[in-house]
Fold:
Amino acid sequence: QVQLIESGGGLVQAGSSLKLSCAASGRIFTTYAMGWFRQAPGKEREPVAAISGTGITTRYADSVKGRFTISRDNAKNTVYLQMNSLKPEDTAVYYCATAPLLTLDTRQYHYWGQGTQVTVSS
Structure:
Protein backbone atom coordinates (compact mmCIF):
# COMPACT_ATOMS: atom_id res chain seq x y z
CA GLN A 1 0.00 0.00 0.00
CA VAL A 2 2.92 2.33 0.76
CA GLN A 3 6.34 2.31 -0.89
CA LEU A 4 9.30 4.11 0.67
CA ILE A 5 12.67 4.95 -0.87
CA GLU A 6 15.53 6.31 1.23
CA SER A 7 18.42 8.33 -0.15
CA GLY A 8 21.24 10.62 1.00
CA GLY A 9 23.53 8.18 2.78
CA GLY A 10 27.28 8.13 2.32
CA LEU A 11 30.74 8.12 3.88
CA VAL A 12 31.60 11.15 6.02
CA GLN A 13 34.07 12.14 8.73
CA ALA A 14 33.16 12.50 12.38
CA GLY A 15 31.73 15.92 13.16
CA SER A 16 30.25 16.43 9.71
CA SER A 17 26.61 16.51 8.59
CA LEU A 18 24.36 14.50 6.33
CA LYS A 19 20.71 14.80 5.31
CA LEU A 20 18.63 11.74 4.51
CA SER A 21 15.41 11.76 2.50
CA CYS A 22 12.55 9.28 2.34
CA ALA A 23 10.13 9.56 -0.56
CA ALA A 24 6.75 7.87 -0.18
CA SER A 25 4.13 6.69 -2.65
CA GLY A 26 0.87 4.80 -2.33
CA ARG A 27 -1.75 5.81 0.22
CA ILE A 28 -2.21 9.30 1.60
CA PHE A 29 1.10 10.35 3.12
CA THR A 30 -0.40 12.55 5.84
CA THR A 31 -2.29 9.59 7.30
CA TYR A 32 0.90 8.11 8.75
CA ALA A 33 3.36 9.00 11.40
CA MET A 34 6.89 8.43 10.08
CA GLY A 35 10.01 7.15 11.74
CA TRP A 36 13.72 6.75 11.09
CA PHE A 37 15.49 3.64 12.35
CA ARG A 38 19.00 2.30 12.06
CA GLN A 39 20.74 -1.05 12.24
CA ALA A 40 24.46 -1.57 12.74
CA PRO A 41 26.22 -4.89 12.01
CA GLY A 42 25.50 -7.44 14.72
CA LYS A 43 22.89 -5.24 16.43
CA GLU A 44 19.11 -5.05 16.42
CA ARG A 45 17.27 -2.32 14.58
CA GLU A 46 16.77 0.69 16.86
CA PRO A 47 14.59 3.79 16.64
CA VAL A 48 16.20 7.15 15.87
CA ALA A 49 13.38 9.65 15.47
CA ALA A 50 9.66 9.88 14.71
CA ILE A 51 7.27 12.55 13.52
CA SER A 52 3.47 12.82 13.60
CA GLY A 53 1.34 12.87 10.47
CA THR A 54 1.02 16.65 10.55
CA GLY A 55 4.67 17.19 11.44
CA ILE A 56 3.83 19.17 14.55
CA THR A 57 5.16 16.61 17.05
CA THR A 58 8.52 14.82 17.08
CA ARG A 59 10.33 12.30 19.26
CA TYR A 60 14.01 11.33 19.42
CA ALA A 61 16.19 8.63 20.86
CA ASP A 62 18.46 9.93 23.62
CA SER A 63 21.54 9.01 21.59
CA VAL A 64 20.70 11.52 18.84
CA LYS A 65 18.77 14.20 20.71
CA GLY A 66 20.18 17.64 19.97
CA ARG A 67 22.10 16.39 16.93
CA PHE A 68 19.43 15.00 14.59
CA THR A 69 16.26 16.68 13.34
CA ILE A 70 13.33 14.92 11.68
CA SER A 71 10.97 16.88 9.45
CA ARG A 72 8.45 16.27 6.70
CA ASP A 73 7.05 18.00 3.65
CA ASN A 74 3.66 16.45 3.05
CA ALA A 75 3.18 18.32 -0.23
CA LYS A 76 6.22 16.39 -1.53
CA ASN A 77 5.39 13.13 0.28
CA THR A 78 8.86 13.22 1.81
CA VAL A 79 10.35 12.90 5.29
CA TYR A 80 13.88 14.05 6.15
CA LEU A 81 16.51 13.36 8.76
CA GLN A 82 19.10 16.10 9.21
CA MET A 83 22.11 14.61 11.01
CA ASN A 84 24.72 16.93 12.52
CA SER A 85 27.84 16.31 14.61
CA LEU A 86 28.00 12.74 13.36
CA LYS A 87 29.87 10.16 15.42
CA PRO A 88 31.36 6.79 14.43
CA GLU A 89 28.67 5.09 16.50
CA ASP A 90 26.07 6.56 14.13
CA THR A 91 27.34 4.19 11.43
CA ALA A 92 24.44 1.99 10.32
CA VAL A 93 21.91 1.33 7.61
CA TYR A 94 19.13 3.88 8.06
CA TYR A 95 15.52 3.00 7.30
CA CYS A 96 12.32 5.02 7.17
CA ALA A 97 8.96 3.49 8.02
CA THR A 98 5.27 4.28 8.63
CA ALA A 99 3.11 3.87 11.73
CA PRO A 100 -0.54 4.68 12.51
CA LEU A 101 0.44 6.92 15.43
CA LEU A 102 3.55 8.67 16.74
CA THR A 103 5.75 6.10 18.48
CA LEU A 104 9.33 4.87 18.78
CA ASP A 105 8.19 1.25 19.11
CA THR A 106 9.62 -0.60 16.11
CA ARG A 107 6.81 -3.16 16.23
CA GLN A 108 4.22 -0.49 15.39
CA TYR A 109 5.80 0.31 12.03
CA HIS A 110 4.31 -1.60 9.11
CA TYR A 111 5.85 -0.30 5.89
CA TRP A 112 9.62 -0.06 5.48
CA GLY A 113 12.07 1.22 2.91
CA GLN A 114 15.17 -0.67 1.80
CA GLY A 115 17.59 1.52 3.72
CA THR A 116 20.55 3.76 2.98
CA GLN A 117 24.07 3.26 4.34
CA VAL A 118 25.63 5.90 6.58
CA THR A 119 29.30 5.44 7.49
CA VAL A 120 31.10 7.84 9.83
CA SER A 121 34.89 7.60 10.05
CA SER A 122 36.99 8.83 12.97
